[in-house]
Design a protein that fits this description.
Strand order of the largest sheet: 2-3-1-4-5
Order of helices and strands: EHEHHHEHEHHEHHHHHH
CATH architecture of the largest domain: 3-Layer(aba) Sandwich
Number of helices: 13
Distance between the termini: 54 Å
Strand content: 5-15%
Length: about 375
Amino acid sequence: MTNPTVQCDRPNGPLFVVGVWRSGTSALYALLNQHPQIALLFEGDLRLLSWRFRFAPSPARVLARWNFWNRAAKRHQIRLERLPQTMSDVRSAMEATYREYAERKGACIRGEKSPNYHDCLTELAKDFPGARFLVIWRNPLSVCASILSARAVCSYFRRTGMVLRALLGFPRLKQQCDRLLEQGLPVHQINYEELVDDTEGVMRNICKFLEIPFDSRMTSLDEADVSAIYPEDHHSALRRESIRLMPERTSLLPAAIQRKIKRYICEWKEESGGTWPAYPAGIAVPEGKPRWTEKLADRTAYSCLRAYDHMVFVLYSLGPLWSLRQYRSLKRRYRMFRQKRNRGVAAGASSATPRDVFTPRLAQFISPWKS
């Protein structure tokens, strides 16, 4: 087994590992962090609290709010004494936490993996000159089926419209990727299916992209450090010895939703000359591409969902912590009440309908949902 040592003789920007939700970013993160010269945060998402930094908060307040938001500082054991005395903007705060975490490991490649950055790559490139981007793709049908499977064990994926967020997140990420490539910025793209089928080959190519020697530990999850990963069951696959392709039960997807996803895949393949997305390799859709009315309704719903997401980020950035704690407490009680009320009623993904999977309440009034 190799144990390469790399001297960082030149400064470089952070590495961002990005993909839509349930596309394999967590598995890729765990494999990458096996390398002694790579230290990435797992969904630190400090950038989502950027409004907080309009007031140049102290590091102690940053860590307190960050921990309340997603426990990232605690999960990564970010130490207060190693951070700057002041944090004037979110960029400097992110850079400081990346550096502190990487220096503790003795790694020269720092950064973060987060699917929440899939629609802001160009902004990250502007904020972090010299940044590198590693983008992972996966069959959209498998992604959406995986989201529905995760609903049973993770409340995050039970939110209204998560499948639509992921489905329309594909073209947003592709658009961002293409813009970076047009600017000549370093972007490396892989497919989850190929990562599973030829883990060593894919990881060797990633090492070439990062200009570091290949380390054989990157081919297995046997000794991967998963301490920073959320403990929920939908990440349980990361705690096995090797990465394997678990067949997604696409039958969980209602027929109308499957047809909708296939219509979008058909359109994307036609626009890209059959090259993207790489998986599924071939697809036939009797009704062809989505109609303009369907796309308008979906884009409107997607915009509503993302506007809601950003509103939540602002509230968690600026709201008093005592009120946010009270809100979470009430939300937890309400969730427990609903669980008691629905006890004994099967709430599996097979009961999902196009409306409750894709659309927020507002969009239900404007979405035709023709199957």
